[in-house]
């Protein structure tokens, strides 16, 4: 999760983070000083897949760790009735996202806020939470707090969509990687029920073809009947 220069020079890429996660300061530095690897200028393909599947149908949507807003904007454009709350810890990212939402003409439906999602999140009023490349930045110690924030942002029956780097991504650069079982356990321990987990990609400027990732859909109980039936 470093800069573009590091991506083109693997010798400078720091070792992949383990249980300590990505140091929190990295995000403040990256947005201030360089182009972040994950800022590709377009929404994640996995988010577009989720849109096509109707996974964001139940609003309002909470985009956790929204970065510069490409995903939230694409979702808002796809559904002109959806209300979105987008939060990130880094003021520079949130400012850029708010500017992009204005330029796209969807600023009336996306509210941007700054928050440290390890401890602080919105109330349980969301039909859906999107985590596009966020959970995998946290340390083992911080992950349960973050997942509690995700869980608590959902109303009963609401869905959480996660895109998380997988251990199958062996190229350098990026956040920590998670095994399928480790990921499912972490989500279930937060009180969410995993409905589906599949191989996917998370696009970055440093992983040609996208970084090997998991696309997960989980629900806060009770899982809607149609989702339970599709398992
Ligand atoms: C890999 S980026 C993904 C950004 C965006 N979801 C996307 O796909 O373009 C991870 C994001 O998580 C944010 N983040 C990291 N730690 C955070 C925290 N404790 N609270 C809120 N956001 C955080 C970073 O600032 C960054 O924007």
What features would you describe in this structure?
The chain has one domain (4-229): Vaccinia Virus protein VP39 (Rossmann fold, 3-Layer(aba) Sandwich), CATH 3.40.50. The protein has 8 helices and 7 strands. It has helices at 4-8, 24-33, 45-52, 70-78, 91-104, 143-153, 180-189, 225-229; strands spanning 61-64, 84-88, 110-114, 126-132, 154-165, 192-202, 211-220. It has a 7-stranded mixed sheet with strand order 3-2-1-4-5-7-6, with helices on both faces. The chain is globular. Bound molecules: S-adenosylmethionine (SAM). S-adenosylmethionine is lined by residues 24, 27, 38, 44, 65-67, 70-71, 88-90, 93, 116-118, 132-134, 137.
Number of domains: 1
What is the CA-based Rg, rounded? 16 Å
Order of helices and strands: HHHEHEHEEHEHEEH
Tell me the helix content.
25-40%
Mean pLDDT: 91
What molecules are bound to this protein? S-adenosylmethionine
Number of helices: 8
For this structure, the CATH topology is: Rossmann fold
Throw out a few tags for this protein.
8 helices; alpha/beta; seven-stranded mixed sheet; binds S-adenosylmethionine; 231 residues
Topology overview:
Layout: H1 4-8, H2 24-33, H3 45-52, E1 61-64, H4 70-78, E2 84-88, H5 91-104, E3 110-114, E4 126-132, H6 143-153, E5 154-165, H7 180-189, E6 192-202, E7 211-220, H8 225-229
Parallel strand pairs: 1-2, 1-4, 2-3, 4-5
Antiparallel strand pairs: 5-7, 6-7
The site of S-adenosylmethionine has 20 residues, from α2 and α4.
């Amino acid at each position: 999760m470093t800069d573009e220069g590091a991506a083109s020079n693997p010798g400078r890429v720091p070792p992949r983070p383990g249980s300590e996660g990505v140091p929190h300061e990295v995000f403040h530095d990256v947005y201030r000083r360089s182009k972040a690897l994950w800022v590709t200028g377009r929404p994640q393909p996995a988010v577009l897949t989720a849109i096509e599947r109707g996974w964001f149908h139940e609003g309002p949507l909470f985009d956790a760790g929204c970065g510069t807003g490409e995903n939230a904007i694409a979702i808002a454009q796809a559904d002109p009735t959806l209300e979105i709350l987008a939060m990130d810890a880094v003021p520079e990212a949130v400012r850029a996202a708010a500017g992009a939402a204005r330029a796209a003409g969807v600023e009336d439906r996306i509210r941007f806020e700054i928050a440290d999602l390890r401890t602080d999140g919105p109330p349980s009023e969301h039909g859906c939470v999107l985590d596009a490349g966020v959970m995998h930045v946290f340390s083992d110690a911080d992950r349960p707090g973050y997942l509690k924030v995700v869980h608590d942002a959902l109303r009963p029956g609401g869905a959480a969509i996660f895109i998380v780097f997988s251990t199958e991504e062996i190229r350098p650069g990026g956040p920590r990687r998670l095994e399928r079982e480790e990921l499912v356990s972490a989500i279930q321990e937060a009180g969410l029920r995993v409905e589906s987990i599949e191989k996917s990609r998370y696009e970055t400027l440093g992983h040609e073809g996208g970084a090997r990732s998991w696309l997960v859909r989980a629900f806060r109980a009770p899982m809607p009947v149609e989702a339970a039936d599709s398992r």
